[in-house]
Design brief:
Elements: E1 3-11, E2 14-15, E3 25-26, H1 34-45, H2 52-60, E4 62-69, E5 72-85, E6 91-104, E7 107-113, H3 116-127, E8 147-154, H4 157-163, H5 168-177, E9 184-190, E10 196-201, E11 211-221, H6 241-251
Parallel strand pairs: 3-6
Antiparallel strand pairs: 1-7, 1-8, 2-6, 4-7, 4-9, 5-6, 9-11, 10-11
Length: about 280
């Protein structure tokens, strides 16, 4: 017995999937968040912010991911000058520094499961969106149309992850990494019984709080077309995600990553950046 799956592929020079970021440090998750994908679909459907239908959509679908190319991290440094409100009600001019992190050249296969009528509605909306959609931040425009197909060719999400064809861009990027390209492909399957979780289940509110979403994370062997032949081996000309991450941790102590997943403001290295550091409440 097969299941309906709406399949998308996300590829862009830059993607940014915010997770737990607050204040001046705008980090990115190492793969799309469910809230980000639901937001993308909501743009296509024309749902405004805080529309109850966004939460309903999030509950009606599951989002799974095959990480075809991990990409690597880059930082966009900003300074912002303007009036800032002080505690006494007055204003002062000040410069605010902001660090915004992006994924470069990442490619993700997105598998959305749900009822067939709902997936058909989503497919039609992505084909003719009400509002433009983007890959995380508004500056992150897809390199090509993201819709692949609505299919019933697979009996499970895992089968689709293992068998669905890879993008030509994935093959080129991984070949570019040469012998340092990973021999494994990471995947994430949304699963209520999963052993991992993150707070990216939509819960509309002005405070941007989210509910936990559970998933299973694992690896499959990279198919033959993604592997490097001995004759092709040479030094890579593009840093991998792990290499870029290590370099950032050396150069920027405010950058944090745990198991390739970014957590919130409470893990910023500098206590001076913690908005609750002076709170009398003990956890």
């Amino acid at each position: 017995m097969t299941i309906p799956l709406l399949i998308l592929r996300l590829h862009a020079p830059y993607q940014a999937w915010g997770y737990g970021s607050r204040w001046d440090y705008r980090k990115t998750n190492s793969e799309p968040t469910k809230s980000g994908i639901v937001g993308l679909l909501s743009c296509a459907l024309g749902y405004p912010v805080f529309d109850q239908r966004i939460e309903e959509l999030s509950k009606q679908i599951t989002v799974s991911i095959r990480v075809e190319h991990e990409g690597y991290i880059s930082t966009d440094y900003h300074t912002i000058l303007g009036p800032h409100l002080k505690s006494d009600g007055s204003y002062r001019n000040a410069t605010v520094e902001s660090w915004r992190y992006y994924l470069e050249d990442a490619i993700f296969l997105i598998l959305i499961s749900g009822s067939k009528p709902l997936l058909e509605t989503l497919r039609n909306a992505i084909s003719k969106p009400v509002w433009p959609y983007y890959l995380g931040r508004k500056c992150c425009i897809p390199s090509k149309p993201i819709l692949l197909e609505l299919t019933e060719a697979f009996s499970s999400v895992m089968e689709a992850i293992e068998k669905y064809p890879y993008a030509e861009e994935t093959i080129k990027l991984r070949k570019n990494e040469r012998k340092k390209a990973s021999q494994k492909i990471r995947y994430i399957i949304e699963d209520p019984n999963g052993q991992k979780s993150q707070l990216d289940e939509i819960k509309p509110n002005k405070g941007r709080f989210y509910e936990p979403r559970y998933f299973t994370e694992g690896f499959i062997d990279a198919p033959k077309e993604l592997l490097i032949e001995p004759s092709e081996e040479s030094e890579p000309i593009t840093p991998t995600l792990a290499e870029s991450d290590r370099e950032l941790k050396t150069q920027d102590p405010t950058y944090q990553q745990d198991s390739d997943r970014f957590y919130g403001w409470d893990e910023i290295d500098h206590p001076s950046q913690d908005p609750y550091q002076n709170s009398s409440e003990e956890n």
